[in-house]
Automatic annotation (TrEMBL):
Protein name: Aminobenzoyl-glutamate transport protein
InterPro entries: AbgT (IPR004697)
PANTHER family listed in its UniProt record: P-AMINOBENZOYL GLUTAMATE TRANSPORTER, P-AMINOBENZOYL-GLUTAMATE TRANSPORT PROTEIN
Entry keywords, A to Z: Membrane, Transmembrane, Transmembrane helix
Keyword Transmembrane: yes
Gene Ontology molecular functions: secondary active p-aminobenzoyl-glutamate transmembrane transporter activity
GO process terms (BP): p-aminobenzoyl-glutamate transmembrane transport
Keyword Magnesium: no
Short name of any one Pfam family annotated for the protein: ABG_transport
Residues that span the membrane, as ranges: 31-53, 84-103, 123-156, 163-183, 213-231, 266-287, 299-321, 342-371, 383-401, 408-426, 438-457, 469-494
Protein species of origin: Candidatus Phaeomarinibacter ectocarpi
Amino acid sequence: MTQTAPRRSMLTRFLDGVERTGNALPDPVTLFALMIVMVIIASVIAAAAGVAVPHPGTGDVVEAKSLLAADQIQRLLVEMPKTFTSFAPLGYVLLVMLGVGVAEKTGFLTVALRSLVSGVSPRLITAALVFAGIMSSLAADAGYVVLIPLGAAIFMGAGRHPVAGLAAGFAGVAGGFSSNLILTPLDPLLAGITQEAARLVAADYVVEVTANYYLMLGLVPLFVIVGTWVTDRIVEPRLPKWVPTETPIPAVDGDVSAVERRGIQAALLSVVVLAAGVAALAWAPGFPLRGEDGSFLPLMRSLVSLMFIAFLVAGIAYGVTTRVIASDKDVVRMMADAMSDLGVYIVLAFIAAHFIAMFSWSNLGIISAVVGADTLRSIGFEGSPLLVSLILLAATINILVGSASAKWAFLAPIFVPMLMLLGLSPEATQAAYRIGDSSTNMITPLLPYFPLILIVGKRYDPNFGIGTLVATMLPFAIAFGVASTAFFVGWLALGLPLGPGISSTF
């Protein structure tokens, strides 16, 4: 008798459709190339139609320019190297990752995550896992590769269901991706893209790396509380009582050796010494990291460089102490390996830089911003409701396009200028995007680490599939999205700064 295949649930069929649709999309680089073609066509049509608007700042008439005009073609070819190398996020990311690469290749960041959750009281283990996941955005891929399987193993060792530990770690890593106690490589990356977009309206506008720091800092305890509550009250109770399987489960070492502990101590000591040096350089007006007027603006604008130095120094201190680094050649090799890991990003940065530049040259950016702002103003749609709509849009797009920088590179030139004309600062628009982008990370099958997490889940449940994982993580996605959006709206209502000296209004 022929066995019929088990009936697939509606959720599983829906997710399969999402996966097929997402996999059918071109690579992000190809998407940007297609959008460049669309911008060229739109510029030709708009220029031929004589489309023009008054500039909101100067009042001058801004006319659409055809990108196929002789001067525009010449500009594209002559300025191509400059367009690429002057793309603000590129320099920021390359510089920070030179330091992060050493800290990661020596094993410092991975061991730091392990030490954070090892030896924690069983009553606090869920909160510790979520918190460690949030902080793991400092360590690039380490959170997905190390923390999620470690969380499952720790829960199993405590007699709790390992899938609940997997879920808590995954929620922190993916859902808390945009929040941290410390600035991460994502901050300069998004700030650079936002700055490029803001200059469509204000030519000299500067977006600081700390643009959203206060808000993202405030989200950390919120995500820890929400993630812990969802794990303990919703996710774990619906799981069956954990009964160890007969099949041995691969061990995940959560202990930190004596050598690794000494390495961490050396790394932390080096960072403390560096922090003391930075404090000395910013001690009084006129010092290198303090303005003549007493402001800390030079310090704020040096944070990318200081992040690079901090990661580099900590990585070297850890590597030398643990003997992973034997000579200067090892440090150079690790920095080179970090750069090679960024090959795909560099290609993406090249095409994204030209998309943003050509969008600006055609004047379609400012024209669409003015027209869009006028339309929204005429229907009275502005302020917090507009930012909440952007959060929902970013959360939805994130299901099909995973890269945070890729999505922001094509959303920023439209939304940042438009919302500036409606009185919202570029920093507020960026914050709204970050909240929406992170909330659905844990339920998209297109996340690069989704297959890895499925494999970890199958260690404990042979039937663990896409539907199981999404059903497990959906309460986290909803709770994180609702809580962070409400938190953001309340933050704006109270008029609190998004970062040092950063207002939500333009």
